[in-house]
Write a structure and sequence with these properties.
Layout: H1 13-28, E1 50-56, H2 59-64, E2 75-80, E3 88-91, E4 97-100, E5 106-116, E6 126-136, E7 140-146, E8 152-158, E9 174-179, E10 185-186, E11 191-195, H3 206-213, E12 218-226, E13 235-236, E14 241-245, E15 266-268, E16 281-282, E17 303-307, E18 317-319, E19 325-330, E20 334-339, E21 342-344, E22 371-373, E23 386-390, E24 392-395, E25 401-403, H4 409-412, E26 413-417
């Protein structure tokens, strides 16, 4: 089927399922008094549809690109929260508009994405993205941000869980950091932690949590670690990737599917974990620490951040509704934020009170949930090797990767085989994984 601009649209499996249910119900109710049979092929006259307008937040850049009326040919993705099927995808017209009239009403994740491609090593290659969560159908406008050259970014996130043998094992996770800078940067004193977001707050409403989750002044955190060094002890060269392991040991001895992190560049310090004497520790400096003694547990469901050096003792603190006292990392110290919670496309889900919340202020991340995944878990040896990896936007003339950063986790990251310590050049800036294009030209 086609939208108003002639682009092909994929008929949502959820709609097919709904039609099937209606057809069955009509057969069962044909003799029921007071029941009016409705032809499922007849459009609902009350369906006013959804109109989406995609723009750039930077009006000067929009004018320079000729996009003052809106962003043309932007990919728009709609995923109904409780729908277990793949998202619907649309493309905007020449004025940045697209309309759809066959959406089931409900709570949706909405994202917009556009790549402006130049030569592979040409700085004119740009990415634009944005998104939010909202109830549809309605008329909405999505303001997209342009990519940031940036400096240090979280380039990969890997977490372990229930292993292929059914044994719970969380110690094989790691972070990877990389730099988009053309000059050397230093890790000394930087802070790596997780922010108050989705985790630990399922029983509270969005309004109750909004002062902390959507605080524009910073990120509230219980656990965070700090890099050692006095200023220039730990340099990172342009394009270099640094691995920070939860435990810098060979985890493949537990099961071959887990990574060997014995050569990691750093490890998180805990009170009862194995210490690799050849790998520098990141001591915990937050107001709390993991009770299992391995340092901050790495989980794709949390909101992680990287921040410039701070004095932990000088941070403002407050008791959050989950009962923990947390410290606020000031907004002007935050370097990067990533939220990687997976959405199971095939199992469906229920809408808990906090699912509708924004996990952090829009200035830190426009839309979390960085990937869609099949209905499986770490007991599947293939799934157990997947990690979240930041997309490669382009390569410099010297072949160095520049990673995408449009401040939208869902668009900036993709799922790929883990690669601690090196950038996977195959994870390129393109249509996000899990999306099925409906544009016949793509």
């Amino acid at each position: 089927m086609q939208d108003d601009e002639g682009h092909m649209r994929t008929l949502k499996p959820a709609v097919v399922r709904a039609v099937t249910v209606v057809a069955f119900a009509t057969l069962a109710a044909c003799d029921t008094p007071g029941v009016t049979l409705v032809d499922p092929d007849v459009a609902n006259p009350d369906d006013k549809g959804t109109t989406i307008h995609v723009t750039l937040e930077d009006s000067a850049l929009a004018e320079a690109l000729g996009w003052s009326q809106g962003v043309p040919n932007a990919l728009v993705q709609l995923h109904r929260h409780i729908d277990p099927f793949r998202p619907d995808t649309l493309y905007t017209d020449s004025t940045g508009h697209v309309s759809v009239t066959d959406l089931l009403p409900g709570f949706y994740r909405v994202a917009a994405y556009r790549i402006l491609a130049g030569e592979q090593s040409d700085t004119s290659t740009r990415a634009f993205g944005g998104g939010f969560k909202t109830n549809l159908p309605t008329t909405i406008e999505i303001g997209m941000a342009a990519d940031r050259a940036g400096s240090l970014v979280i380039s990969e996130l890997f977490s372990t869980g229930t292993g292929p043998d059914g044994v719970y094992y969380s110690w094989g996770g790691f972070f990877e950091l990389s730099t988009n800078s053309e000059t050397t940067v230093y890790l000394d004193g930087l802070v790596l932690g997780w922010a108050h977001g989705r985790s630990g707050s399922a029983l509270h409403t969005c309004d109750e949590l909004r002062p902390f989750r959507e605080d524009p002044l910073g990120l509230w955190s219980l656990e965070f670690h700090q890099f050692p060094g006095s200023g220039t002890d730990f340099p990172v060269s342009p394009g270099q990737a640094i691995t920070v392991a939860l435990d810098a040991v060979d985890h493949s001895v537990v099961h071959p599917v887990f990574p060997d992190l014995s050569q990691a560049d750093f490890e998180l310090e805990g009170t009862a974990d194995p210490d690799n004497p050849d790998v520098p520790n990141l001591p915990t400096v937050g107001l709390g620490h993991n009770l299992l003694g391995h340092g901050m547990i790495i989980s794709s469901s949390k909101v992680y951040f990287l921040a410039q050096p701070v004095d932990p003792t000088s941070l403002e603190t407050a008791i959050i509704l989950d009962g923990n006292r947390k410290a606020r990392i000031p907004a002007d110290r935050v370097i990067d934020v990533v939220h990687g919670a997976g959405v199971n496309l095939y199992a469906g889900s229920t809408l808990t009170p906090n699912q509708e919340c924004r996990w952090v202020n829009r200035s830190f991340d426009r839309l979390g949930h960085a990937f869609y995944r099949p209905g499986t878990d770490f007991r599947d040896p293939v799934f157990a090797t997947w990690s979240l990896q930041r997309r490669v936007l382009r390569l410099t003339e010297a072949g160095r990767p520049i990673l995408q950063d449009v401040n939208t986790s869902f668009l900036d990251f993709s799922v790929a085989r883990r690669s601690p310590g090196w950038i996977d050049f195959s994870v390129t800036a393109e249509i996000p994984s899990g999306l099925r294009s409906s544009n016949p030209s793509s």
